[in-house]
Amino acid sequence: MLNFTYLAEAATPLFFPLVAAIGAAIHSRSGRTRLSRAEIWFRWWAVAALGGGSLWMTVSFLTIPETMTEMIGFQNTPFVTEIAFANLGLAVLGIRAVHAAYRERVTIGLGAGMFLWGATLGHLYQWIANGDTAPGNIGAVLIYDVLLPVLLIVLAMQSRKQERQPADRSDASPVQVS
Description:
Layout: H1 4-11, H2 15-30, H3 37-63, H4 65-72, H5 79-96, H6 102-130, H7 135-138, H8 140-164
Helix pairs in contact: 2-3, 3-4, 3-5, 3-8, 5-6, 6-8
């Protein structure tokens, strides 16, 4: 039977996406911004979920590597420092999203995907080949690693579509063709 500690460790990766969803929902309902809803949602997901989550992983892998590796079911090796700094790169990408243009938004999603989808393959391999069912290996981390980059890319593309749509021109004078 699963215990509370296992469930808490397995669900921890969902904290930052939860912050992103709540923040985006509140911000997009305010109506006091010129940003499209898709761009608001992208920025919240990139900054809070990717940036915040990756910064948390950076600090955790640098300060409590034994705890982190135990939670994942891996050995504590010097590779843990590399994971910390790879996450720092993702954090920079996420935080950069505050002022990112369309192409940067897509690149942020793709960049996150390259690392996180690769990590997903590693987690699945460890699960299948070695029976690693540690909460940090097969818990919500799999959902986060697979879906976050997809969501970022989709929101970036949707924000571009909204940018290209003409504004409501119901009060504009009709176009005359000569």
